[in-house]
Amino acid sequence: MRILVTGGAGYVGSHAVRHLRHAGHQVWIYDNLSCGHAAAALDTPLILGELSDTQKLVDLLRSQQVEAVMHFAAFALVGESVTNPSKYYENNVVGSLRLLQAMHGADVRKIVFSSTTATYGEPAKSPIAETTLQQPINPYGFSKLMVEQILDDFAAAYGFGFAALRYFNASGAAADGLIGEDHRPESHLIPIVLQVALGQRDRVTIFGDDYPTPDGTCIRDYIHVDDLAEAHLRALDRLQPGKGLKLNLGSGTGYSVQQVIDVCRQVTGHPIPAMMGARRAGDPPALVADSSLAQRTLDWQCRYSDLPTIVASAWNWHQAHPRGYA
Ligand SMILES: NC(=O)c1ccc[n+]([C@@H]2O[C@H](COP(=O)([O-])OP(=O)(O)OC[C@H]3O[C@@H](n4cnc5c(N)ncnc54)[C@H](O)[C@@H]3O)[C@@H](O)[C@H]2O)c1
Ligand SMILES: O=c1ccn([C@@H]2O[C@H](COP(=O)(O)OP(=O)(O)O[C@H]3O[C@H](CO)[C@H](O)[C@H](O)[C@H]3O)[C@@H](O)[C@H]2O)c(=O)[nH]1
């Protein structure tokens, strides 16, 4: 297929682009490089553009005869979304709406959208299935939930076929070490811990050890970015006009912050000093996916999402690119 990938110069998008191309699809990346890196595009055509530029998108979709869109472009810092909600609703909601309007205008009706665990807020029960009530606790989560709603309505009214893939914690890097995770500022646990191992930070601060979990630190479900990319590829094949797939993507195994740091110590052989700090606002105690619906619907399984494999791939990338894409 001929596919436009918004946010394809970012972390998850760049890995998905490689999977798409490997499977024989023709791909164009559309990115404003606000958080992404031109180098992450490798040899895939990169078009610099804004989600809000509807006319540019219509022209592009038409001229390249695009058949489907994968939509990764968004802002994704939970804390920043609380202090600057306007920025998040503008980019994530209005930006997505403009993209969908462009697709409608160009008669492109297939889309795979990056949603998030953050749409669930603080669910009482774990693991989290898709039937869990979606009650976000921050503007980032609301912005993604709003787009899910818009997609439902575009499916019903205009025949869009969509998949909203709710990722848990994306992590790891490509096995060949060519691309990896480089967020600026970095807020994600694994890259921060590995920056300590590289000597770029003195220590990692653990955000709270008084959670109702076995060791008191927060539990998350880490899924390898290549497993996420594979699920996107399979979702693309299963889009149906007028219908929406809403699927959790996680490994189904939870690791505490303390366990993640311990695995990073084992993989890197570095002592990785850690100190206890205060809770980070808005962190739920435990988020673990029930991804059985995605497994059945997509005929998909995680292959690289055991934590030592995730950390080893990330460590490979960080060692080879100590300054990221700089
Ligand atoms: N990383 C995770 O653990 C995680 C978890 C759940 C959901 N998600 C979602 O997955 C998607 C990708 O996340 P990521 O970690 O790769 O983020 P990222 O910041 O690395 O990538 C986002 C990309 O979108 C681009 N972009 C942002 N706004 C744009 C705009 N208006 N026009 C054009 N391009 C724009 C950025 O330049 C960047 O290249 C996001 O939608 C995020 O909300 C990520
Ligand atoms: O320096 C750090 C960084 C993180 N953590 C902890 O490590 C865990 C994982 O934190 P991340 O920031 O790596 O990931 P989050 O679970 O907060 O975020 C993930 O889920 C969010 C929604 O909940 C967004 O989708 C986001 O993009 C995605 O990475 C959390 O308990 C956090 O408190 C620390 O203790 N110290």
TrEMBL record:
EC class (word): isomerase
Protein name from the UniProt record: UDP-glucose 4-epimerase
Enzyme nomenclature, EC number: 5.1.3.2
The family this protein is said to belong to: Belongs to the NAD(P)-dependent epimerase/dehydratase family.
Coiled-coil residues: none
Entry keyword set: Carbohydrate metabolism, Isomerase, NAD
Gene symbol of the encoding locus: galE
Endpoints of the signal sequence: none
Superkingdom assignment: Bacteria
Entry's Gene Ontology molecular function annotations: UDP-glucose 4-epimerase activity
Cofactor dependency: NAD(+)
Organism for this UniProt entry: Anatilimnocola aggregata
A Pfam cross-reference name: Epimerase
Pathway assigned to this chain's UniProt record: Carbohydrate metabolism; galactose metabolism
Domain NAD-dependent epimerase/dehydratase, first and last residues per copy: 3-250
InterPro entries: Epimerase_deHydtase, NAD(P)-bd_dom_sf, UDP_G4E
Lineage start: Bacteria, Pseudomonadati, Planctomycetota, Planctomycetia, Pirellulales
